[in-house]
Each structure stands twice: as C-alpha cells, then as structure tokens.
Amino acid sequence: MSADKKDVSRFTEIRNAKAFRDYAIAERFEAGIQLRGTEVKSIRAGRAQISDAFGRVERGEVWLYNAHIEQYAFGSINNHDARRIRKLLLHAHQIRKIAQALDAGGKALVPLRMYFKDALVKVEVGLGTGKKLFDKREDLKKKVELRDVQKALKSRRG
Hints:
The protein is 32% helix and 34% strand. A hairpin with a 2-residue loop joins strand 4 and strand 5. By secondary structure, it is α+β, with helices and mostly antiparallel strands.
C-alpha cells in the first residue's frame, strides 16, 4: 500500500446541521482548538457534537462553549469533561475582527464544522446573523422548488 492512499474512515468531519438553518453566515474563519489527547481520540471516532455550541471573545481570546466531545471509552481517570470550555486558536487580527463584530451586536460566533487537517483538529467558525421564521420558510420553499426542478429535468432526460 502506498503512502498516497488515505483511509477515508479515519478522517472524520463533524458538522453543525443547525448553523445554516438558523443563521445567515457572513464570514468564516478556520481556527485551531486546544484539546487533550482523549478528546482527539473521541473526535477521530466521530463522538462529538457541535450543534449547540457557540463562541465568545473574553480577554482577547476566543472560547468555544457547549461543544460536546464524549469521554474516550478507553480513557483513564485523566479523561476529559465532555462539555468543558475550549480555547480556539486564531490570529490576533482575526480575533479583533470577530470581537468588533460581536460587540456591534446582532451577530453570533457559530461553529460550522470540526475536521482534521493532517493530524490537527480544526474548527470552522462563522459570524452569523440569526434568521427570522419567515427567512427559514423562504429557504425551505426555495429548496422544494429546486428539488422539483431537478426532478423534472431528471424525468425529461430519462
């Protein structure tokens, strides 16, 4: 087996399904995350959930709250707390940009996905504005219309 081939099952991506439904994402950032060894093993096993998570800027640092990373099954007494607060690693200019947007109001820092980049765990976070109920309904209508068009095109070809 050559070194070029990658085992797809080893590279897990955890997505936030609620993010694009509840928020209009304006800008995205790729951040590192400060983790313990057992947390990395749980993420690699796909045992994480970020749908309820959010970010805050405190004392010039970005923190991720409510991200649930299950305790590692084969961990010792040094296993991590599942819902502990985790530090996001960003450049200073990115932190300033995020802090200004959050201080202005009306925006939220939402994790979009958690994934592996080489051996490192990365979190893609986005600055989002909350959608109203009628915005969500419009999005659903557009999806249904697009699906109907795709179905009509498919039946026409086949």
